[in-house]
Write a structure and sequence with these properties.
Length: 505
């Protein structure tokens, strides 16, 4: 064999071996995770391998727990029950070890599937008896591809944005139209990892102007992309918002409403890009941009990451935004003029309250610490210094301190509701309509991992009721209230999607 062939063969073998080790390491990471290892070592002898009890009465999975099953109660049981006192363990644990064990029990009890299993889930219709309403969950429409967002139209149709396709309309019988022609070009995924698409330039949210009935404006956000024009070999992307009108299935009159200098485009792919949109009562438009792993920038107003941005409906920047500076005082590439709040992690949901017009968001935490937040002007939402979640390896989140961030928790806006363990909260809506009259003003939130819908009643900023009204219905990307008062839910499964509908019976 010639020398060059030997080198190529050796490099190929090396590549295969390194990739193999990498894939093995990634796919077995859960088995090495602290709480799983500790459970087997310290708890399984009494509580059983699958938490279903090795002895009578010690089932932690399928029965109601005597001392409660929220994270705090679980921590308390593990730490203080006399029977646990003799186990020589706690000294070996990291500081957050007990909380991690509590999360592990809670995640198991709620039967969160793995991410790849959740993409394979197939929906079947069901009837649900919830506290205030009996209803069925039915499939209303089958979509060609994975949806990110739906927008109910006044005439009962729904606009849909599919991540790898673009915009289309679903009519009142559930039939999906052809693609709307002429919207910004969308790129295919680069590859899939764990079922999730990895790529740049995916479609994000579609939303109607509050006065759509008169002006026809449709707002569309997507991850804009550049490569060589950004001087990069690898594609880069960043959220961009345009508006346009649909005339005879064509996208017309396009205007850019929010975009940033190419300097802020990043090679981090589009998952968790955000791009959620909401309007308030004065027609200001709010746009979310995820942290995109640039955690040290979340507290730097000159960059777009981890912020909620605010512009007028025509894209003009209001000078009462909290970090606004006149043109000669600021760097032209700075994003500070549109920043409204900051210190966010992964803003996957944004909506307005139909009466107060206040803007609310959901945010995904790490392992635990998903949040429901009320967005306030100049609000510092604390990430990555403060969270109720843990890192995926069961340790405390230390990124904030490592980056040198330093501000007291009193200066941050605390979540109105915390979800620990984390169901991977996605979009949310306030119920308004006649069909589910006893849910009036309640918040409905979807989730990806838990595949559940939560109903929250919040009075004067305080959670007074929390109910899981549906589980096991699929990875929910969006939840909206139709013009007919029914609840429309966009889910993704495999490479396709569906719109489900909650109908009272
Ligand atoms: C020596 C056996 C034993 C071991 C080991 C043990 N437990 Fe327990 N555990 C029990 C018993 C017995 C109870 C019920 C005590 C009671 O009702 O007062 C219990 C109760 C609990 C409860 C409360 C259940 C409820 O109904 O509210 C939790 C949670 C729990 N254990 C978690 C753990 C975890 C996590 C570990 C490992 C770190 C662990 N246990 C190790 C015996 C054990």
């Amino acid at each position: 064999m010639s020398k060059s062939k030997t080198i190529i063969l050796t490099l190929t073998i090396l590549f295969v071996v390194i990739s193999g080790v990498g894939i093995w390491f990634y796919s077995t990471k859960d088995q090495r995770e602290f709480s799983k290892v500790a459970y087997v070592e310290y708890c399984a002898s009494c509580h059983g391998d699958g938490m279903s009890g090795a002895r009578d009465g010690l089932d932690l999975f399928s029965t109601a727990l005597i001392y409660g099953d929220d994270t705090e109660s679980l921590i308390n049981s593990i730490q203080t029950l006399p029977v646990h006192g003799d186990i020589a363990w706690v000294d070996d644990f990291p500081e957050t070890g007990i909380k991690a064990l509590a999360l592990s029990i809670s995640e198991r009890r709620q039967q969160y599937p793995s991410i790849s299993d959740s993409y394979q889930f197939s929906f079947s219709p069901k009837t649900i008896e919830s506290t205030y309403h009996r209803f069925k969950v039915e499939r209303f429409s089958e979509l060609k591809h994975r949806p990110y967002s739906i927008a109910p139209m006044p005439d009962g149709r729904n606009l849909v944005s599919e991540k790898l396709r673009g915009l289309s309309v679903v009519d009142t019988a559930g039939n999906q139209s052809k693609l709307i022609e002429g919207t910004p070009e969308i790129f295919d995924k680069f590859f899939s990892a764990d079922g999730a698409y990895v790529g740049w330039r995916h479609a994000l949210e579609v939303a109607l102007h509050p006065d759509y009935a008169n002006n026809g404006w449709i707002y569309f956000s997507f991850a804009d992309r550049c490569q060589l024009s950004c001087g990069s070999a690898i594609p880069q992307s960043m959220v961009k918002v345009v508006r346009g009108r649909i005339v005879e299935n064509k996208w017309k009159d396009e205007e850019t409403i929010w975009s940033v200098d190419k300097e802020h485009y990043t090679v981090v792919p589009d998952a968790l890009a955000g791009g959620r949109l909401a309007f308030d009562k004065d027609n200001f438009l709010y746009v979310t941009v995820g942290g995109k792993s640039f955690y040290k920038n979340l507290h730097d107003m000159d960059t777009p990451y981890g912020k909620v941005h605010r512009v007028k409906d025509n894209g003009v920047v209001p000078n009462d935004n909290p970090f606004w500076l006149s043109e000669n005082e600021r760097d032209p590439s700075s994003t500070r003029n549109t920043v409204y709040s900051y210190g966010h992690r992964a803003l996957q949901g944004l909506t307005e309250h139909p009466i107060s017009g206040k803007i609310w968001s959901t945010e995904m935490g790490p392992r635990g610490g998903d949040e429901v937040n009320r967005i306030v002007k100049n609000g510092n939402f604390g990430w990555p210094l403060y969270t109720n979640g843990l890192d995926y390896d069961s340790t405390e989140i230390e990124i904030g301190a490592d980056l040198g961030l330093d501000f007291p928790i009193e200066e941050t806006v605390l979540p109105v509701v915390d979800f620990t363990p984390a169901p991977a909260l996605s979009n949310l809506s306030f119920y308004h309509g006649e069909k589910f009259s006893d849910w009036h003003g309640d918040m409905l939130i979807g989730s990806l991992k838990a595949m559940s819908i939560y109903r929250l009643r919040i009075t004067d900023g305080v959670l007074v009721e929390k109910e899981t009204i549906a589980t096991q219905i699929g990875r929910i990307r969006d939840i909206e209230i139709g013009a007919d008062g029914l609840v429309y839910v966009a889910i993704e499964h495999g490479d396709n999607g569906s719109i489900l509908r909650l109908v009272p019976i």
